[in-house]
Amino acid sequence: MRRKLPSNAASIAFETAARHGSFARAANELALTEGAISRQMGRLEAFLGVTLFERVGNRVRLLPNGERYAAQVRELLDRLDRESQYLMGQPNDGASLDIAVSPTFALRWLIPRLSGFGEQHPNICVHLSERMEPFVLAGSGFDAAIHFEHPAWTGMHTHRLLSEVLIPVCHPDLLDPGKQAAALDSLPRLHRRQNPDAWQRYAQETGIVLSNAAMGARYDLHAMLIEAALAGLGVALV
């Protein structure tokens, strides 16, 4: 079945004119004449059977249908641009590997080791994308994910890389060496948002009494948690 789509030229001209609110500025950006843009918009409106613009002096203003269509066209063109740039960066004689990974793990563990992988597999281009939350891998566009164990990975082929062992850390100025256990209850506790019950589990496993294990500031990234501890903002489990 043949798709009912406007021409690429008309779509690009429309998005540009909608963004500038001016046929003249759109023409300048696209190296066309204002008349060419106007004719493109006329053909596009005829194709759609909908009026997209109204003229206001020397400018044009999107009508409600035009506003909705402009947002959709812009999203599609942005996606096409991203996908095209991605393909342009792929080697013709090699392969690529798209991996979703938590940012702190990527920065502190994975990236420093990628040079060794590159030496062993010079024809494979590795792309990393940040994903803090678990997600469904199938249909995501990723070849693999390096993440914490989670039910979202059920049915996927998994391999355990590391076991996590959390220990409390803080700036030395905050800690009295002779009262370390007691200090955990008196110092501000720092939390990672994706692991909100870490302090409760730590208290249960170690037998340390914490008056309110959930109290304290929360941070999205593990790296932020570490920096907060280094800055003396409290004690963190890392």
From TrEMBL:
GO terms for biological process: DNA-templated transcription. GO terms for molecular function: DNA-binding transcription factor activity; sequence-specific DNA binding. Residues 13-63 form the HTH lysR-type domain. InterPro entries: LysR-type_TF_proteobact-type, LysR_HTH_N, LysR_subst-bd, WH-like_DNA-bd_sf, WH_DNA-bd_sf. It comes from the Bacteria. Transmembrane segments: none annotated. SUPFAM superfamilies: Periplasmic binding protein-like II, Winged helix' DNA-binding domain. The keyword Transcription applies. Keywords: DNA-binding, Transcription, Transcription regulation. Belongs to the LysR transcriptional regulatory family. PANTHER family: GLYCINE CLEAVAGE SYSTEM TRANSCRIPTIONAL ACTIVATOR (PTHR30537:SF26), HTH-TYPE TRANSCRIPTIONAL REGULATOR (PTHR30537). This is Putative transcriptional regulator. It comes from Pseudomonas fluorescens.
